[in-house]
Amino acid sequence: MTTLTHPQNTPSYKPQPYPNAQTDEMLTPECLKDKYQFIKPIGEGANAKTYLAVSTIEHQQVIVKALKNVDQFKSIELFKREAATLSHVNVEGVPKFYDFITSEDNLGECYIVQEYFNFPTLQDLINKKKKNNKTFSESETLNIITKIANILDELQSNYTPPIIHRDIKPSNILYDPKTQKVMLIDFGAVANPAKKSQGSTVAGTLGFMAPEQLMGECTIQSDYYALGATALYMLTGISPVDMNNDPDNPFQLLATPHLMEKEISTPVQTFINELINPDLASRPQNSKELLKLMDKLQTSPSDFYKFYKIRQQRKLKIEIFNQEQLAESRETRHRKADENLLMNKFLIKIIAFFLRNDFLKFLGFIILLILCILCAGIVITIASFGIFSIIIALVTLPFVYLHFHYWYTESYNEHPYRYK
User: Fold this and answer.
1) pTM assigned to the model
2) Which element (helix H / strand E) includes 225?
3) Which of 8, 36, 246, 319 could disulfide-link 252, Cβ–Cβ 3.0 to 4.6 Å?
4) How far, CA to CA in Å, does 330 sit from each of 184, 318, 335, 337, 417?
5) Alpha-carbon torsion 332, 337, 341, 346, what sign?
6) Environment class of residue 154 by beta-carbon count within 10 Å: exposed (0-12), middle (13-18) or buried (19+)?
7) What is the rounded distance in angstroms from the CA atom of residue 135 to the CA atom of residue 130?
């Protein structure tokens, strides 16, 4: 059994039995029995199944995430990457990492053990509100989104390279309405932007996945897109995957009609459209800028618009600069092409002058012949007078001579490519 334990959570005493921990005829895997006992399954995704368990050491409830696709190399790689990432993360709003265990009999049988929070997911709360024809209010939504943005700020600012979640959505966010505590869970799609050479992996959930993720790429702005899509879902009760796209831009969600139907304020509409913009340059460029936008949005809408206009002007300046660089580059290429053309014409004139003068033709032939002999001598010297090199030189020189003889004789006057 192989384990990876967080240094702050190393067990300090021996395992003790915990009675009545197994229910629903669940059998705890052999490699876990010394430390944990399953209670019941509480969730299942495409690649993993989650169980509520109890630690026989600490006598506290924990979450055990078990890999489902134990025979798929990519799934195992992502699962181990998640464990390695969580083992180094110490961020308020991310459940603490306790353990990573693999079976000795099957390396694909892996388990991640984390802190347990008995909170509903945002998806559960959205579904509950939809049954009563309700949605989250603006203030609730902004409060929750701000807390997630603060978590992203720590993940992106305090770690190098920044940690990108890649799968932010309501079902991966725990929220306790009483304490208003928010937890970001399921780092199974976590990405490392410094390791692009490993090959692209499409990870995420349709509707919440930024356009660049569909092409196997991701940036910190990809999480901002998912954050905006989550806010859109909370405010409208409609999943982004069920919304229409702009006919002129298939990656642009038509969110405004749904937001207007729910009478969402114009500043919030502007902010959400900013987050779900398919253009990376239109989204906040870092977590600090995102938090600044959200702060101004909640405290002073007028200041929000001022800051928004400054960002738009900056974006316009960047676009103008890029266009100028492109135009300058195009002009430089054209100038070089013209210079090359002039040089080629100059060389052609020189060659034509030599071809028209009999004496210069003869002189050029002698010079070229001498150069050929010198080259052949160098080849022979380098090869230490190898018999093979000598044979090649003897065979090649007559052909060189015949070629230049033909080139500089009067018969060449009838050659179709001769310059006159």
Assistant:
1) 0.69
2) helix 220-236
3) 246
4) 47, 18, 9, 11, 33
5) positive
6) middle
7) 7
